[in-house]
Design a protein that fits this description.
The strands form three sheets. The protein has a four-stranded mixed sheet, with no helix packed on it. The chain has a three-stranded mixed sheet with strand order 3-9-8, with no helix packed on it. It has a two-stranded antiparallel sheet with strand order 5-6. It is mostly beta strands. It has one helix and nine strands; from the N terminus they run H-E-E-E-E-E-E-E-E-E.
Length: about 140
Amino acid sequence: MKKLAVLACTIVLLGAGCFSPPAEPAQPEPSPKAEAPADNRPVAEQPEEPAAEVSVDLNISMDAGNFFFSPSTITAEAGQTVHVTIESNEGFHTFVIDAINFKRSTKTGETMTFVAPTTPGTYEFYCDIGSHQSMGMTGTLIVK
């Protein structure tokens, strides 16, 4: 009987070895990353670039009357967008700037938008209705 027990244990042990789950395939170890040798040279400082200038739109409130613009002087940056809102308007008038080929009728509550010339200087604006210009309905656009 002892022989039978030893034989049974041997069969169980051998059977257990034959039916064990397959081993997981071995994962290759990641290779160490090559590191660049340390560079002890000082790093040259990069010159700081000047920040780009941001042009902010210019908003002007203007009155147009017989025979004036108020204010009669507008100061803007070269290439700046200018919005002129007519707050009050007596009669029929225009707003003309020959240098930028700009001409609009002035109407109360309306906004005219133009881009100032890109060349700094002094430019005239005026009303081209009849003799309004010669009667003093002019102004100056100063471009910096």
